[in-house]
Amino acid sequence: MPATTTLQCLFAVLLFLDIVESNSPKDQGCGGSGVPGIPGAPGHNGLPGRDGFQGQKGSHGMKGTKGDTGQNGATGKTGPKGNLGPTGQMGIKGEKGENGKNGENNTGNSINWKQCVLNRGEGKDIGLIQECIFNKRHSSTALRVAYAAPITLYCPGSTCCGRWYITFNGAECSGPMTIEGIVYIQGTNDNPHRHRQIEGFCENIPSGAIKVAVHVGNCPGYGSSDRYSGWKSVSRIMIEEYPQSQK
To answer: Distance (Å, rounded) from C-alpha 164 to C-alpha 180?
Structure first.
């Protein structure tokens, strides 16, 4: 190839390289600025990132100092006194009651009592032993009656029960209960001779002459047996009139 042609080719190559370098953004040399290229399309949004690790718990702060105690507040003033309420009306005066009755004289001479003495024995197994008439002064009083005597019961090798009781005008006491006593022996040959006393109060008895009597009989559920009242000793029926108890 001729030398002239070779130089022309070399010059053309250098010119091309110069044009290329002048269009490159890295080179702001002597060449002029090239025409800006067409902007590219925006890229897609990236994926959300992971949550970060939880931080360590901070240490407690120091305890603060205790504050000063506050002062007591001042006492409030006393409130005004309230007005007096209306005065109530006086009730109607009641009628005068009736005069009470004079009380009974409670001296020794006013005590009402009686004693009937029996200086004999009574071998009845069932029936009346002794009667004593008593003059009762008041219907509102009670009578205290006591029968004291040796009482015997005998039933060899068997079981027996005897009942001694008080009546008022032929009837046993019902205010509040009967006045009675029993002797019981079970399956022995004993023949006890003992002094015993049966006593009690009876209420709701009218005033006047009262027949107070001692009887002997069978215990409920038991038959007759050998009984004796007042063996070798004095027996007594004692009667006293007392104010009736308050219910």
So the answer is: 6
Rounded Cα distance, 234 and 231, in Å? 8
Highest mean pLDDT among 48-57, 163-172, 185-194: 163-172
Q: Do 239 and 132 meet the contact criterion of CB atoms below 8 Å apart?
A: yes
Exposure string over 70-83, b if 16+ CB within 10 A, otherwise e: eeeeeeeeeeeeee
Confidence of residue 85 (pLDDT cuts 50, 70, 90): low
Phi, psi of 143 (to 5 degrees): -110, 130
What is the maximum alpha-carbon separation in the chain?
200
Contact between 146 and 126 under an 8 Å Cβ cutoff? The reply is no
Checking if the pLDDT of 171 tops 50, the result is yes
Q: 221-226: long-range contacts at Cβ-Cβ below 8 A with a sequence spacing of 24 or more?
A: 222/159, 222/160, 222/161, 223/160, 224/125, 224/126, 225/125, 225/153, 225/154, 225/155, 225/158, 225/160, 225/161, 225/162, 226/125, 226/152, 226/153, 226/154, 226/155, 226/160
CATH number for the domain running over 123-243: 2.60.120
Question: Tokens 């005066």 map to which residue?
Answer: 93
- Residue-range domain boundaries for the chain: 123-243
Query: From the CB of residue 211, how many other CB atoms can be counted at a distance below 10 Å?
Result: 13
In residues, how long is the chain? 247
Q: Are the C-beta atoms of residues 147 and 236 closer than 8 Å to each other?
A: yes
φ/ψ (deg, to 5) at 206: -70, 165
CA dihedral 179, 245, 115, 231 (to 10 degrees): 30
